[in-house]
């Protein structure tokens, strides 16, 4: 089984959920952020500064690099996935984290071959701080729809 990579469609979906910020800003957690949720460094690889800016093209390149760990976390599970299923899972993992995915009922159902049940598990991950968030609900519905779509 060969490792998959995010498709252009999948990357575009994630970018849409992350939203684009051309100028560095502090996120609600107090972390300096730019582009599509990128932190740490600017496009030159130096420490991110409040004065830094990016183009959408540069931000997409950073997102492409940032998403590698999520691709790796999904590929690590050695699942037989379609491109759409992989893209949906990478979006999910990029948002919730590799550890949460590794211990999720969603992954348990996937490993058991219950793809319909796994798809329904996306919808359970729509809360932050114990509260349902509209943005997360929409993201999970979109991921579920992509996961179930024929490739």
Which terms summarize this structure?
151 residues; three-stranded antiparallel beta sheet; 52% helix; globular
Q: Considering DSSP H and I runs of 4 or more, what fraction of the residues is helical?
A: 40-55%
Tell me the number of strands.
Answer: 5
Q: List low-confidence stretches.
A: none
Total number of helical segments?
Answer: 8
If you had to describe this structure to a student in words, what would you say it looks like?
The protein is mainly alpha-helical. 52% of the residues lie in helices and 11% in strands. It has helices at 8-18, 56-66, 68-75, 83-96, 98-102, 105-111, 115-122, 134-148; strands spanning 21-26, 32-35, 38-39, 127-128, 131-132. The strands form two sheets. The chain has a three-stranded antiparallel sheet. A hairpin with a 5-residue loop joins strand 1 and strand 2 (32-35). This is Lysozyme. It catalyses: Hydrolysis of (1->4)-beta-linkages between N-acetylmuramic acid and N-acetyl-D-glucosamine residues in a peptidoglycan and between N-acetyl-D-glucosamine residues in chitodextrins. InterPro entries: Bacteriophage_GH24, Endolysin_autolysin, Endolysin_T4_type, Glyco_hydro_24, Lysozyme-like_dom_sf, Lysozyme_dom_sf.
Brief overview:
The chain has 151 residues and is mainly alpha-helical.
Topology:
Elements: H1 8-18, E1 21-26, E2 32-35, E3 38-39, H2 56-66, H3 68-75, H4 83-96, H5 98-102, H6 105-111, H7 115-122, E4 127-128, E5 131-132, H8 134-148
Antiparallel strand pairs: 1-2, 2-3, 4-5
EC number: 3.2.1.17
InterPro entries: Bacteriophage_GH24, Endolysin_autolysin, Endolysin_T4_type, Glyco_hydro_24, Lysozyme-like_dom_sf, Lysozyme_dom_sf
Pfam family, one: Phage_lysozyme
């Amino acid at each position: 089984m060969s490792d998959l990579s995010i498709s252009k469609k999948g990357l575009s979906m994630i970018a849409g959920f992350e939203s684009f910020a051309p100028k560095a800003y502090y996120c609600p957690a107090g972390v300096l952020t730019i582009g599509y949720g990128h932190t740490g460094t600017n496009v030159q690889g130096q420490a991110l500064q409040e004065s830094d800016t990016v183009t959408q093209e540069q931000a997409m390149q950073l997102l492409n690099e940032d998403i590698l760990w999520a691709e790796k976390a999904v590929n690590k599970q050695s699942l037989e996935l379609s491109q759409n299923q992989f893209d949906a899972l990478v979006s999910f993992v990029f948002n919730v984290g590799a550890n949460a995915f590794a211990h999720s009922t969603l992954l348990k159902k996937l490993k058991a071959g219950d793809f319909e049940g796994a798809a329904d598990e996306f919808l359970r991950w729509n809360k932050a701080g114990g509260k349902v968030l509209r943005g997360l609900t929409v993201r999970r519905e979109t991921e579920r729809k992509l996961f179930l779509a024929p490739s």
